[in-house]
Amino acid sequence: MCNTKAYAAYNPTGELAPFQFDRREVRPSDVKIEIVYCGVCHSDLHQVRNEWGGSQYPLVPGHEIVGKVTEVGTAVTKFAVGDLAGIGCLVDSCRECDNCRKGLEQFCRYGSTGTYNSKDKVSGGVTYGGYSSQIVADEAFVLKVSPNLPLSGVAPLLCAGITTYSPLRHWKVGKGHKVAVVGLGGLGHMAIKFAASFGAEVTMLSTSPSKEKDAQHLGAHHFALTSDPQTLKGLAGKFDFILDTVSAEHNYNTYLQMLNTDGVMVCVGAPPTPSQIMAFSLIGGRKSLAGSLIGGLPETQEMLDYCAAHNIVSDVEVVPVNYINEAYVRMLKGDVRYRFVLDMATL
Ligand code: NAP
Ligand code: ZN
Ligand code: ZN
To answer: Considering only CA atoms, which of 147, 118, 138, 141 is closest in space to residue 60?
Structure first.
């Protein structure tokens, strides 16, 4: 077994603190990665605080993992020692069901294995995530990372990147489309970058006036403050596609009224509390409300390759691991520019 240093939540209300556990030995199809950076996703915070239910403690969060391969199993073909590699939200799935065969492992009929806080089919225990010094996973769930991009900015692509890339691709967003992104945080800033890169006209809908300049630097063509009722009225019927990345309770009807005829709004933000949707918000204009969950392994690799080809990375604030509790406090205030990334050398 491989002794591994980590940071863990011990209960839903306390602070994260140092923790040690054993990773499994490398099996023939496994890759072992020394973690260099791990991004901090709002989903980490939801699960640390058990806001979605089902959290198991100690809980080691982290599913935006990049690092260097330090060991490969005898049957590994994709990786060699010294390669850069990444792991996102999944470390296993059945690999045989219809969804897995389509590369939609996130929708595995038998339940995919999350990178943390998930039942580990190999050990029978619980999976531990990337706020740790190293990780062992089957190479089928390990992504290739380009050496040409700054590694700290690549880490958030493994969740924030794929979660925004995937719905934009699925709904074929591009030139001629008017797109709105709701919530300028980790997901929101990647959504702007991808939507603009795909050729759409992008409007940022934010509650934070201080983020207007940044939104423009990130590639948004317009910015609207959602706290202003007059502004909201002016946006009625305007967008073909809205990507909602908001992490807390908010009124979906407010944004649905901004959709054009046949427009689609996709929720990727996952507030822990239910919301009321007025049927009338959808009926007039034949609008659709949909959801999307990360992306499968093939599409995650496609997204990483797209980012390498187009020089796209996340805007990050690299912090030491022991800053994590403060990072969560700032994230809750919407004060992230635009993703915290843990420097695992500080563990
Ligand atoms: P984040 O960095 O904290 O960004 C969330 C943003 O939402 C904030 O910066 C803020 O933007 C806005 N916001 C927060 N509270 C709000 C409120 N009460 N009303 C309106 N806007 C509010 O979070 P993140 O890491 O991007 O994650 C966002 C959500 O996506 C989380 O719920 C997370 O769990 C979920 N998620 C889902 C998937 C998936 O596969 N579907 C994957 C990853 C994450 P402004 O300051 O601009 O208003
Ligand atoms: Zn995430
Ligand atoms: Zn499956």
So the answer is: 118
Query: Which atom of ligand 1 is closest in space to residue 293's alpha carbon?
Result: 40
pLDDT tens by residue, 243-300? 999 999 999 999 999 999 999 999 999 999 999 999 999 999 999 999 999 999 999 9
Instruction: Specify the DSSP class assigned to residue 105.
Output: G
CATH of 161-291, one of 3.40.50.300, 3.40.50.970, 3.40.50.720, 3.40.50.360: 3.40.50.720
Distance 235 CA to ligand 2 centre (A): 30
* pLDDT beyond 90 at 81: yes
Does the bond joining 320 to the residue before it have cis omega, within 30 degrees of 0?
Answer: no
Q: What angle, rounded to 10 degrees, do the helices at 160-170 and 297-310 form?
A: 100
In 3D space, the residue among 277, 280, 273 whose CA is nearest the CA of residue 290 turns out to be: 277
pTM above the 0.85 mark?
Answer: yes
Q: Any residues with Cβ below 6 Å from ligand 1, and which?
A: 41-43, 46, 159-160, 163, 183-188, 206-208, 211, 245-248, 250, 268-270, 292-294, 331, 334, 336
Domain boundaries, the chain: 2-159+314-346, 161-291
